[in-house]
Amino acid sequence: MQRISEFVVGLLFGLGLMLSGMTDPSKVIGFLDLFGQWDPSLAFVMGGAIAVAFFAFALAKKRTTNFLGGALHLPKSTQIDKRLVLGNVMFGAGWGLAGFCPGPALVSMAAGQDKALVFVLAMVFGMIVYELIQRRKTP
Q: What was the pLDDT predicted at 31?
């Protein structure tokens, strides 16, 4: 049941990304082009996602298990530190330059977009490099 629900949720997420235009790099870049031909439509997508997440997290904070009975692990940290800010800046810069963030990039790659494949490969490479650096830091 766990894998089926993961598949269904992932499928719904991917379909939502496609329907909202989040898998179209030109639409994403148009949203980020505040001083050119700004396309505000993705603000509604983000607003909808924030509204859903707000209520979902409010409900999740009251629970100790997920809906399938598994353990529910929510982040405990509320500290904003240099690593968080730097990571957000890098994420935003990559999103703005490529027109993809990770979720839409995976959906676009699965749909056969070459640019998304390059983005996902670069993202995976960055994750591997990060893990290697973290392992060297930790004795």
A: 85
Given a cut of 90, whether residue 77 has pLDDT beyond it is no
pLDDT digits 0-9 by tens, 107-127:
889 889 899 999 999 999 989
Structure tokens at 118: 């390059």
Q: How many domains does the chain have?
A: 1
* Dihedral class, residue 69 (left if φ above 0, else alpha if ψ from -120 to 50, else beta): left
- DSSP secondary structure string, 59-78? HHTT-SB-TTS-B-------
Domain extent for 90:
2-137
Report, as an integer, the average pLDDT of 102-109: 88
- pTM for this model (two decimals): 0.69
d(CA 95, CA 105): 10
DSSP-assigned states of every residue in 5-73: HHHHHHHHHHHHHHHHTTT-HHHHHHHH-TTSS--THHHHHHHHHHHHHHHHHHHHTT-SB-TTS-B--
* CA-to-CA separations, 45 to 13, 42, 76, 90, 129, in angstroms, rounded: 12, 5, 27, 22, 32
Query: What pLDDT score does 58 carry?
Result: 92
